[in-house]
């Protein structure tokens, strides 16, 4: 008597489905940069995509209801002087996004609730430290306004965006940093580097706690912290075969699992859902999305299925769980960029007959409220993310939009001297409006003067032309007499 035991899992039948073309985003000039980035960032309000832009770097921000063909002259976020390499939405404010660029500057932007009506060139703050291009921006999962940036100068900097100052400078990497990831409560930092090493670092001090060889291949590697502390990595073997591995932080040099996938040369981005313990592997240039479930039973990383598409992907973004549709049992949503300019929306769904809220699929998930301030985090305090229930769907708080305003005024208040306070800033506003009015009056006077000079120039040109004709006629009258004209009276000249 023979029988086969099938592993029991509620995610065994997860299937992916691409939405129709008219529910996707078309005619997007996706960036042609060779940098290994996802080129896409998503939150429940907006979709942001790095695009090709003449004369600098830019990215486009679209509200989720603006589907279909995007106009070629759609407003952009375009204040960078070089191509944008990476973007990331703030997890605690859906209107705030950070961008890193080849111009060595990191900018933080505030996007209005209903999207952009004109090109945005004024950021909330510029973060200037790096000497070479900035290819990685990452927000802290629990502390408000804490942002990590990494550049090709091998430096990792952690900023307090609310004040625009660098909190920590980490210079322990001998080469370019490929990826960075905070753990569940943000107390540890995981990085991968071009020197093939994976490192766990104390983000407050920059001290390396452990390091090991990540993958032996020379191509780019990626590593993420899983919810319960394990480390998941992707990379290449010596023979350029793509691999993934699972490790414990205590024994980074001895992987629990090391599996070879295929021989493609595209970098694999691991996208992780901490609520379901699913990891999605999306390779650059691939036409598939593979997904795996991480469990405590061997072989620990269980292959579930592959979502196949006809076109290779240039970039990809993953929606946070609070932006998924709980009524249709959607557990993940991806925004996949094609070379043709189409941003394809793919939903991952668990098939269920009941239309009721499925509590086993939707445990409490990470909300948009920070657990700490930047100052508390720097003092050594750690907190788990604040979780919310999705039973009634996600409703963004109404007061959330005011945070960016207070952040902006907070940054601007750092610039003038402390004496004078609000009175001085009010005087500054009054002076600026008065100066503006003076400039407008001056421009009006200049325009009137230009018109007067243009009229005078026309009159002088006409007089010169008339004198020239008269002179030619006088010179011609000395010939055979055919061209002779009667002399003009002195008052007619």
TrEMBL record:
<keyword id="KW-0175">Coiled coil</keyword>
<feature type="domain" description="DUF1899">
    <location>
        <begin position="4"/>
        <end position="68"/>
    </location>
</feature>
<dbReference type="Pfam" id="PF00400">
    <property type="entry name" value="WD40"/>
</dbReference>
<feature type="compositionally biased region" description="Low complexity">
    <location>
        <begin position="399"/>
        <end position="409"/>
    </location>
</feature>
<keyword id="KW-0677">Repeat</keyword>
<comment type="similarity">
    <text>Belongs to the WD repeat coronin family.</text>
</comment>
<dbReference type="InterPro" id="IPR036322">
    <property type="entry name" value="WD40_repeat_dom_sf"/>
</dbReference>
<dbReference type="Pfam" id="PF08953">
    <property type="entry name" value="DUF1899"/>
</dbReference>
<feature type="region of interest" description="Disordered">
    <location>
        <begin position="388"/>
        <end position="430"/>
    </location>
</feature>
<dbReference type="Pfam" id="PF16300">
    <property type="entry name" value="WD40_4"/>
</dbReference>
<dbReference type="InterPro" id="IPR001680">
    <property type="entry name" value="WD40_rpt"/>
</dbReference>
<feature type="region of interest" description="Disordered">
    <location>
        <begin position="463"/>
        <end position="493"/>
    </location>
</feature>
<feature type="repeat" description="WD">
    <location>
        <begin position="77"/>
        <end position="119"/>
    </location>
</feature>
<protein>
    <recommendedName>
        <fullName>Coronin</fullName>
    </recommendedName>
</protein>
<dbReference type="InterPro" id="IPR015505">
    <property type="entry name" value="Coronin"/>
</dbReference>
<dbReference type="InterPro" id="IPR019775">
    <property type="entry name" value="WD40_repeat_CS"/>
</dbReference>
<feature type="repeat" description="WD">
    <location>
        <begin position="127"/>
        <end position="169"/>
    </location>
</feature>
<feature type="coiled-coil region">
    <location>
        <begin position="436"/>
        <end position="463"/>
    </location>
</feature>
<dbReference type="InterPro" id="IPR015048">
    <property type="entry name" value="DUF1899"/>
</dbReference>
<keyword id="KW-0853">WD repeat</keyword>
<dbReference type="InterPro" id="IPR015943">
    <property type="entry name" value="WD40/YVTN_repeat-like_dom_sf"/>
</dbReference>
């Amino acid at each position: 008597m023979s029988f086969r035991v099938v592993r029991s899992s509620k995610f065994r039948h997860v299937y992916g489905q691409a939405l129709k073309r008219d529910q996707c985003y078309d005619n997007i000039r996706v960036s042609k940069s060779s940098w290994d980035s996802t080129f896409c960032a998503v939150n429940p309000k907006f979709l942001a995509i790095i695009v090709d832009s003449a004369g600098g770097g830019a990215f486009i921000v679209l509200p989720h209801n603006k589907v279909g063909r995007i106009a070629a002259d759609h407003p952009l976020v375009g204040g960078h002087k070089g191509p944008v390499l990476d973007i990331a939405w703030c997890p605690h404010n859906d209107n705030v996004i950070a961008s890193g660029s080849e111009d060595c500057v990191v900018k933080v932007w505030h996007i209005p609730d209903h999207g952009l009506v004109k090109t945005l060139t004024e950021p909330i703050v510029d973060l200037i430290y790096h000497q070479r291009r900035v290819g990685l921006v990452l927000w802290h999962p629990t502390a408000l306004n804490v942002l990590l940036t990494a550049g090709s100068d091998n430096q990792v900097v952690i900023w307090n965006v609310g004040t625009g100052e660098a909190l920590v400078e980490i210079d322990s990497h001998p080469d370019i940093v490929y990826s960075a990831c905070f753990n569940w409560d943000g107390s540890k930092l995981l990085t991968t580097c071009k020197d093939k090493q994976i490192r766990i670092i104390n983000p407050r001090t920059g001290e390396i706690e452990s390091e090991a060889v990540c993958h032996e291949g020379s191509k780019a590697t990626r590593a993420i912290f899983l919810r319960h502390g394990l480390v998941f990595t992707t990379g290449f073997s010596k023979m350029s075969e793509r691999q993934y591995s699972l490790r414990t932080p205590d024994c980074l040099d001895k992987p629990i699992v090391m599996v070879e996938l295929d021989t493609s040369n595209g970098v694999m981005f691991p996208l992780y859902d901490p609520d379901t313990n699913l990891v999605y592997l999306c390779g650059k240039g691939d036409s598939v999305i593979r997904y795996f479930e991480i469990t405590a039973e061997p072989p620990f990383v269980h292959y579930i299925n592959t979502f196949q598409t006809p076109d290779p992907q240039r970039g990809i973004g993953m929606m946070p769980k609070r932006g998924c549709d709980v009524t249709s049992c959607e557990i993940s949503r991806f925004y996949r960029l094609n070379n043709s300019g189409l941003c394809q929306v793919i939903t991952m769904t668990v098939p269920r007959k009941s239309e009721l809220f499925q509590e086993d699929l939707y445990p409490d998930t990470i909300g948009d409220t920070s657990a700490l301030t930047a100052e508390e985090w720097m003092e050594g305090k750690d907190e788990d993310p604040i979780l919310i229930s999705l039973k009634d769907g996600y409703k963004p708080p109404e007061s959330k939009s005011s945070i960016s305003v207070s952040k902006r005024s907070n940054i601007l208040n750092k610039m003038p001297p402390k004496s004078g306070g609000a009175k001085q800033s009010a005087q500054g506003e009054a002076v600026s409006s008065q100066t503006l009015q003076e400039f407008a009056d001056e421009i009006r006077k200049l325009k009137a003067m230009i018109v007067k000079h243009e009229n005078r120039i026309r009159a002088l040109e006409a007089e010169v032309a008339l004198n020239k004709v008269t002179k030619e006629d006088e010179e011609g009258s000395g010939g055979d007499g055919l061209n002779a004209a009667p002399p003009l009276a002195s008052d007619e000249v």
